[in-house]
Design goal:
Elements (H helix, E strand, L loop, with lengths): L9 E3 L8 E5 L23 E5 L5 E3 L20 E4 L2 H9 L5 E7 L4 H16 L4 E6 L4 H6 L7 E6 L3 E7 L5 H11 L14 H9 L11 H39 L1
Parallel strand pairs: 5-7, 6-7
Antiparallel strand pairs: 1-4, 2-3, 6-8, 8-9
Protein name: Thioredoxin domain-containing protein
Pfam family, one: Thioredoxin
Family: Belongs to the thioredoxin family.
Length: about 260
Amino acid sequence: MACSLKCGSYFSGFNSNSKASTSKNFPPSSFGFLGKPPVLPDQKRGTGNCTCKSENKFSVHAETECVSRSMRWWEKNLKPNMVKIHSAQELVCSLQNAGDRLVIIDFYSPGCGGCKALHPKICQLAEQNPNAILLEVNYEELKNMCHCLNIHVLPFFRFYRGAEGRLCSFSCTNATIKKFKNALAKHGSNRCSLGPAKGLDESELMKLASAGELSLSSLQLPSLKEETMEDLVIMRSMELSDLFNKADNNRMKLEREGALL
């Protein structure tokens, strides 16, 4: 909680007209509030004596203005294995660096009632499965990325593991939380996969790159580069073939015209 404090300090508990009073001794005022020494009522010069109500003690009050808001629901009860995603690059890197651990992407929106109702249970399941990684994606903050990933309903979940890539994806609510539990039971057991973690599909990576959400040059995707080169070769071959066909058609046209002459 971020608060800003205004030091409008003042003294209370003094009343010069009080009949019942006690005398308290204070050292000479060598400290200051807001750069000025405090002014005490009925204080005799040089003695430091002041008159105050007997039922009240000397007190200093600080006027505080707190510019904060209560913790938002999607920030409550987060567990150590729940990671907030801020960009498509973070999502891709998190999936690729997860190794053989189960990774669950949780797509939510602050204004989604179903997401809010489900959140406490997701936190509880995350705590019960510490080896799994939950990546929290705020739909409102990363709307363009979510569109590229074809996320059109919330809350929505995707399960990934190692070289297997995406295992399953589905939407569920409190009423259908059994879907989530069944997926955890099926894919939650530890196992080793051959090869590096796959993460998002290459078609999805291409969509993110074309939308300006991702830089492919920063990714190590040899298979994607090979496929891209193959596509370029095929396209170039088709262009050359088209040129040759046009040249042949022109030659045949000229031959016919020459024969007519």
